[in-house]
Design a protein that fits this description.
The protein is an alpha+beta fold. This is Catalase-related peroxidase.
């Protein structure tokens, strides 16, 4: 069979079709970067807002800049394997973990006692090469429900150069615009920080989905619940700007520290797309296993320093929910990672 030669019009049409794919990719790239819609809230804007709140500190994370690396392992009970097919949840499985404790904010020199919000970030390294990365915070729920709300919060809470504190009028306007933050403000007003990272419990805040062996999805949140009894921060500790790191090192010198991974399953009507809402206390909770931390190391040049704890790096058996904050966190983390690694290379005399 012979093929008829293409007409000029057909040739043009085919060339146009070939050009559509790379053009579409370019458009998506530009849109994601925020260049096609300057008013759109991009990762650049989020990272810039975080930097403006915490100040410029080249080579450090834009948020949770001050922290310490930890090494340990996760020992599964097998209870979560009913809901997730991820190998790390199989009964008796032991998974290496590289983690990081930190305090919120972009200032790596901030006193530990000046920031009440603390975090735990973990990378679980499965034997099959897949990783689970999760960033958790020692707060019961997220202050706001949307990406725009988070950005507006950073802008509103930015220190006034004249006073070094947020402008009360700007904060009042923010609360009027985002009333869902009122429960968080009430909680933080009465919150007394603990005297140790080891006794803090950390929450995923965002919802995710566990995928079981039959591919059924289960909406979940999780918490790392400390086995160490909680003690409130003391007046003496409020004079030592590095008391959290010193306390952690001292405790680990006496033995491992442990947290139980408690997974909460959503009930009927529980939303997975609003991290500012707490699920009812009567929801089913299972103990998925125990995190055992054995040692800590300084973050600079430490094993956690070059890890981007992107919450969307998930193994088979765990998937994202429809919470819009997850994509925003992932994009902002990537932007921050790229910026700080470039700065670290430049500081070392090896510009990228």
């Amino acid at each position: 069979m012979t093929n008829s030669p293409l007409s000029t019009g057909q040739k043009v049409a085919r060339l146009a079709l070939v050009g559509v794919v790379p053009l579409a990719l370019i458009i998506v790239f530009l849109w994601a970067g925020g260049w096609l819609a300057p008013q759109r809230l991009s990762a650049d804007k989020l990272a810039t807002a975080l930097q403006q709140s915490g100040g410029e500190h080249p080579g450090y994370r834009r948020n949770h800049a001050k922290g310490v690396c930890v090494i340990g392992e996760f020992r599964a009970t097998g209870n979560a394997s009913v809901f997730s097919r991820a190998p790390l949840f199989a009964q008796g499985a032991t998974t290496p973990v590289t983690g990081r404790f930190a305090i919120a904010g972009g200032n790596p020199g901030a006193p530990d006692y000046a920031v009440p919000v603390r975090s735990m970030a973990l990378l679980f390294q499965q034997a099959d090469g897949q990783q689970w990365r999760t960033g958790m915070n020692a707060i019961p729920f997220f202050p706001v429900a949307t990406v725009q709300g988070f950005y507006d919060q950073q802008v509103a809470s930015r220190p006034d150069p004249a006073t070094g504190k947020p402008d009360p009028a700007r904060m009042k306007a923010f609360v009027l615009q985002h009333p869902e933050i009122k429960p968080f403000l009430a909680w933080i007003k009465g919150y007394v920080p603990s005297s140790s990272w080891s006794s803090d419990s950390f929450n995923s805040l965002n919802a995710f989905r566990f995928i079981d062996k039959s591919s059924a999805a289960h909406l979940v949140r999780w918490s790392m619940v400390a086995q160490t009894p909680r003690q409130p921060e003391t007046a003496e500790e409020k004079t030592d700007k590095d008391f959290l790191q010193k306390d952690l090192a001292q405790r680990l010198a006496n033995g491992p520290l442990k947290w139980d991974l408690m997974v909460t399953l959503a009930g009927a009507g529980d939303a997975g797309n609003d991290a500012s809402k707490v699920w009812p206390a009567d929801r089913q909770t299972i103990n998925a296993g125990t995190l055992v931390v054995t040692r800590s190391l300084p973050q600079q040049q430490g094993p956690c320093n070059d890890i981007n704890y992107d919450p969307l790096i998930l193994p088979d058996g765990i998937a994202a929910s429809d919470d819009p904050l997850l994509n925003a966190r992932s994009a902002a983390y990537a932007k921050s990672y790229n910026q700080r690694t470039r700065e670290q290379s430049e500081q070392a005399g090896h510009p990228l």
